[in-house]
């Protein structure tokens, strides 16, 4: 006989295992909160902006080819900023105990489409160090680009600034807790249905009917214990009289 599960069965299972589901959700949220607030290292972020000037003082109009060349120059600069030639000098100037490859993982360089502004973002466990790395990288790049490409068209538009009470960008505590709540809820629901699936005990008349595939013809009622005790204490003669009276 093919077994089907109705929507009512699903809600009955959820109601039956409600405490389990809520408990797992709360536990997951608690673990995420403790990990986010006490065990995860805060990561701070600092950004500086570099302006690449278009060297065309003779004319105020640019054709498509010149604009494309400037965009390609911006892309080239983005690569040079994170090159070992630049990062090695940054490490030397700040006396950092890391390699250029490790420092590169902390840097993000990008620019908006058709923009002359390059955004340099640094992430570090200390906010003041992120600020120092961002500003020093911009300064070293500004100096070295003159030697590498024989150009002087780079200016620091907006340096990174230290703040008294910086806010970390990682971990995102509330987001972590929200994700943990969803995961805990899904885990609780999954375990609830798994336990219900593994529970093969017969508890109701419907379970019997589903098991044997036949309709129920009668039900033997269960007498309360006090009734059974009172009946068993009566003398045999009284019980025979009651039986004869019933007949």
Which keywords apply here?
3 domains, single chain
Q: H/E series, N to C? A: HHEHHHEEHEHHHH
Q: What is the arithmetic mean of pLDDT?
A: 84
Number of domains: 3
Instruction: Give the termini distance in whole angstroms.
Output: 43 Å
Keywords: Cell membrane, Membrane, Transmembrane, Transmembrane helix
InterPro entries: Bact_polysacc_biosynth/exp, GNVR, LPS_length_determ_N
Pfam families: GNVR (PF13807), Wzz (PF02706)
Family: Belongs to the CpsC/CapA family.
Task: Characterise this structure.
With 247 residues, this protein is of the alpha+beta class. 58% of the residues lie in helices and 11% in strands. It has ten helices and four strands. Strands 2-3-1-4 form a four-stranded antiparallel sheet, with helices on one face. The mean pLDDT is 84. InterPro entries: Bact_polysacc_biosynth/exp, GNVR, LPS_length_determ_N. It is a multi-pass membrane protein. Keywords: Cell membrane, Membrane, Transmembrane, Transmembrane helix.
């Amino acid at each position: 006989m093919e077994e089907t599960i109705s929507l009512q069965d699903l809600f009955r299972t959820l109601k039956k295992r409600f405490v389990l589901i809520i408990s797992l959700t709360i536990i997951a949220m608690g673990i995420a909160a403790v990990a986010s607030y006490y065990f995860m290292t805060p990561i701070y972020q600092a950004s500086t902006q570099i302006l690449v000037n278009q060297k065309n003082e003779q004319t105020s109009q640019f054709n498509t080819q010149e604009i494309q060349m400037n965009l390609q120059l911006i892309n080239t600069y983005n690569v040079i900023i994170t090159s070992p030639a630049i990062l090695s000098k940054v490490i030397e100037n700040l006396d950092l105990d890391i390699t250029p490859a490790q420092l590169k993982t902390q840097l993000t360089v990008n620019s908006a489409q058709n923009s002359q502004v390059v955004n340099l973002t640094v992430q570090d466990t200390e906010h003041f160090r992120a600020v120092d790395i961002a500003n020093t990288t911009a300064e070293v790049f500004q100096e070295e680009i003159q030697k590498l490409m024989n150009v002087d068209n780079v200016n620091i538009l907006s340096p990174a600034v230290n703040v008294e009470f910086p806010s970390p960008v990682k971990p995102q505590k509330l987001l972590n807790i929200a994700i943990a709540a969803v995961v805990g809820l899904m885990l609780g629901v999954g375990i609830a249905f798994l336990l219900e699936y593994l529970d093969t005990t017969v508890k109701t008349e419907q379970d019997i009917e589903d098991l044997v595939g036949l309709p129920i013809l009668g039900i033997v009622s269960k007498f309360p214990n006090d009734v059974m005790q009172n009946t068993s204490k009566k003398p045999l003669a009284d019980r025979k009289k009651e039986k004869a009276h019933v007949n």
